[in-house]
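Q: Could you fold this chain for me?
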Amino acid sequence: MDIKALVVDDEQLAREELCYLLGQAGGVTVVAQAANGPDALAAIEAHEPDLVFLDVQMPGLNGFEVARRVLERPDVTAEIVFVTAFDRYALDAFQVDAVDYLLKPVDPERLEQTVQRARRRLAARGAGTPGPVGDGDGAERAIANAELERLVKRLAQGPARPERLAIKVGERFLLVDAADVIFATLADEVVTVAATGFTGTSNYRTLDDLQAQLDPGTFWRVHRAYLVNINKIKEIVPWFSRNYILKMSDGKSTEIPVSRSQTKRLREYLRL
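A: Sure. Below is the predicted structure, expressed as structure tokens.
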């Protein structure tokens, strides 16, 4: 029997991509889509899905708020999978006993693992095996609901800067301390991140998005195509028109130009 799934994301392209991947995975029927929290709750009521793929950050009700309201309904037994571009919520997702936590862009093999995990949980619940919060256990629901309440308040305070970032290297996601990021660059709409020991790609779509998550005192946008960790500058080379080239501390000693607008700031900071 196919798993009935609901896909919730405020970005249409993201919904369509996930629906396509679920179709490729097999054994899953997407019964509805929703673009925001209120529509998600209405779709859950109307379609009674087995599995809900929830984006975390959405206008109106965010994903954690939707999950909290689902848990408040003992007659709703849908399992939850959180899907987002931000790795900092992963531990939180598992603390509320979500089936899984997927990072965008969603990897097909990783999604297949999630579907299989959900299938096992649904089968165990159907067999009457004591299980996750979705089985209606009041005590476990209360614990998860309290945790979701905390997460909702945290999101309302605005995004916290993550101490670690997820960098995709090959088919794997590696977690790197923000302090170990050397620089990031944007080319062909892909953000590449050089960190101590490896280079990979980021889930952030723009340098602006990535910069917003990092310490502005440490990470400078020295050029429209480059974001650098000023603590990882190895050498500053004078260039024409009193500008500079930065040599970074990665293995290639990557050279990064400093834009005219940032040259003054660099001079004042380093007393050049």
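A (continued): The first helix runs from residue 12 to 25.
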